[in-house]
Amino acid sequence: MRHLANWSILGLTLLFLIGPFVIIILAGTSAGNNLAFPPEGMSMKWYLKVFTIESFRTSFALSMALAVFGTLAALVMGIPAAYALNRYDLPGAETVRTIVAAPIIVPGIIIGLALLRYMVVPLDVTVTMALFMAHTALVLPYAVRVVSSSMQNLRVDMEEAAVLLGCSRMQAFTKVVLPNIRSGVLAAFILGFVTSFNQVPVSLFLSGPGVRTLPIDMLAYMEITFDPSIAALSALLAFMSLAIVFIAERLLGFSKYV
Amino acid sequence: MFRNTREGLALALPAAIFSTLLFILPVGILLSEAFRQGGSWSVQGYIDFFASPLNRTVFLRTLKLGVLVAGSAAIIGYAAAFCIVNLSPKARGRVFGMVVLPLMISPVARTYAWIVILGRTGIVNEAITGLGLSDTPIRLLFTETAVYLGLLQLFLPLMIISLVSAMENIPRDVIPAARVLGASWFAVFFKVILPLTKEGLVIGGTLVFTGALTAYITPAILGGSKVLMLETLLYQRVNVSNDFVSAGVIAMILIVMSFTANLLLKRIATTRS
Amino acid sequence: MSDAFVELKNLTLSYDNSVAVPALDLAINEGELITLLGPSGCGKTTTMRAIAGLLSPTSGIIHIDGRDVTRVPANKRGIGLVFQSYALFPHLNAFENVAFGLRLQKLPDADIRSRTAEGLETVGLAGFDKRRPSEMSGGQQQRLALARSLVMRPKVLLLDEPLSNLDARLRLEMRTELQRVQKETGVTMVFVTHDQAEALALADRIVLMKAGRIEQLGTPAELYSRPRTAFAADFMGFENIFHTSGDTLVSSFGRLPVGYTAPSALLAWRPDAVTVGTGPHTGTITASSFAGGHREYVLQTPLGPLRADAPIAVAQVPIGQQISFDLPHQNARALAE
Known about the structure:
The complex is a heterotrimer of chains A (258), B (273) and C (337).
Chain A: H1 2-27, H2 45-52, H3 54-87, H4 93-105, H5 108-123, H6 127-152, H7 156-164, H8 169-180, H9 182-198, H10 201-204, H11 214-224, H12 229-252
Helix pairs in contact in A: 1-12, 2-12, 3-6, 3-9, 3-11, 4-6, 5-6, 6-9, 7-8, 9-12
Chain B: H1 5-33, E1 36-37, E2 40-41, H2 44-51, H3 53-85, H4 89-100, H5 107-118, H6 123-130, H7 144-168, H8 174-180, H9 185-214, H10 217-223, H11 230-241, H12 244-271
Antiparallel strand pairs in B: 1-2
Helix pairs in contact in B: 1-12, 3-7, 3-9, 5-7, 5-10, 7-9, 7-10, 8-9, 9-12, 11-12
Chain C: E1 6-15, E2 18-28, E3 33-37, H1 44-52, E4 59-64, E5 67-68, E6 79-82, H2 94-104, H3 109-122, H4 138-150, E7 156-160, H5 168-185, E8 188-193, H6 196-202, E9 205-210, E10 213-218, H7 220-225, H8 230-235, E11 240-245, E12 248-250, E13 255-257, E14 266-269, E15 275-291, E16 294-301, E17 304-311, E18 322-326, E19 333-335
Parallel strand pairs in C: 3-8, 3-9, 6-7, 7-8
Antiparallel strand pairs in C: 1-2, 1-4, 4-5, 9-10, 11-12, 11-14, 12-13, 14-19, 15-16, 15-18, 16-17
Helix pairs in contact in C: 2-3, 2-4, 3-4
């Protein structure tokens, strides 16, 4: 009896959370020209059409590049910061932590607007550059947090042992610390990538001629047409995320870092 | 080992400086601008903002939806988290994975699904007209209900995750012990589970409430200009009327609301014990 | 220059501006196994970290093998350290853990292989090459950590409470193992511990430390039978220590005339040096426990609780009963204040 109640609560919750994806996947297979469910016949034409839309291709490339390079840049700054926050008794550690975490707390739309007004316009920074920096700032808190948590389990005396065996401090980091936080770094990369790729509010104001991230481009497209191609594209993106998370989970038990 | 402060700062500063330049500084200027009027400090921007009935409606709607979404997420979250914790470890991992999964998927895609469900030719309307309950489709999109559903679906996983990890920390035998001592399930929840998971509730509640306040896509797609929330209003003010003072005011309100919610929840959690 | 192998001169060590070890002088001979013994916070680990180069001294000099290494960085000192936690590298297998330092020296592959194999064999881990540290028992991890340091052929091998994470049986086994390895390799060892039994069993000489200073330095036999101070006596198992005043013993509980004139300000007796069953004084038994070859009593006396061991041949006296006892002066150890 209890068992049944448990599973029906879970079933309904999961239906609410995951059901909509099943619906868009199917809506994208419609043979008709209108968005409808159940779909008017079956075809793959919308799935194929997505690939022929030029603006989707360029915005996908931009989002991909932002996600990859923004996250890498965040890791380049975030790993040393995480190391310093864990290993040194810094006087301003709390301040540093708060500053680095700030982009999580403040609404993204405000970050985008502020960058547009006080960087892009007055300093003549290109929109692409601003996007890159905004996405880096946005991913930085995740990079620091996830890398920190994987570094916490690593004993300090391991580095001391490495030094006594002849390592320089830098070698101790690359030969002992880095290999042992590898899965944390990878998890931070994936979390950062997904966050950046799906990010909308920050990018909302940061768009120029021919420079749009994919989610913004999808929003713009939806304002013009309501055909099933957006459903197909959404489904494809969902599959991409699924694949990434699935591989990550298989490789390193990703969900413990979320 | 010799770890001097200068070395530590050198490692931590690039990230801190980057965040300051890219984030603290611009956002700070934006917020302070809402306090400027003709070259001097003033709160006129705030007075003007709240003088407008539309702005007041939007503010109250945002607050209301935020509270409703966070409250609903808490209720569903407790039920779901309790069920998840009681699963076998293997099943627990799988179900937990399915709860986390939606977070990895683009919010545009997640919100778009509701158009398919609630649109004029969507599932609900097809069902209604198909069953002959109504001849014409009912308007379901661009309503508060649509925004509510969209936001709840978007942020429920955050609540469930917080509550599951809080519940995993409840010592194994506490609940059976309470039952043996004669507590009803009602009492078990309010006297045992709730006090022991309140930190998870505070974290989850803050995440969901703040998320609902600051979501853009969901109110934009499912609410449109008929059901404006603060974020969509901010976008409109900037894009349509170039009104940066209002934008600064709204930004400040959003930040203050998030912080207040967090403080309030923490307060409630500490006074109950 | 003396001919000591390791020499600490006027060494002052501090943490966060508070002095942990003020002006320490210590000379260690080549091939010696020396123990730094003392309660936690006595500065023994701090001293060891300074020798290793993990802590730079506020002032003073460290000489090793005739060379001033005070400013030589830890990775260039040629000193081995076996950590309390072992600090093994979890991402490397046993072989690679041991080969780690050799690889850094860019030795030829064949040398690395033979020296690593030899190192693993010395500690009895031949054939464990492919195991990860996480797949090894506590004792095996301990041996691996030892091998990792030994293959570097360190001038000095430091061991930081290396046996404290092992169970009692393994601890005894590793004790003999350490002695064997030390005799085999002839390496100079500095062994840090808070366990006096361990120090007594292992050391050539014991350095007993208290609050950053050397309280007493000597062979185990010296420290065991002739502690000089109350602190040393207490650490070496003299559980009954009393002040003296003429022919009277004095404690915070009261006084007891003993009929002989005390030769020093303090007198101490081990429990087995107290006579029970006969004697001029009486006390009440408040605790009694069987300890194999003898029985341990706690007596309530005018001096407060007194610990006394009675041979098993003496009939057991129940708790609450009175018993006569003596604190014979020929069994007493005279201590300085």
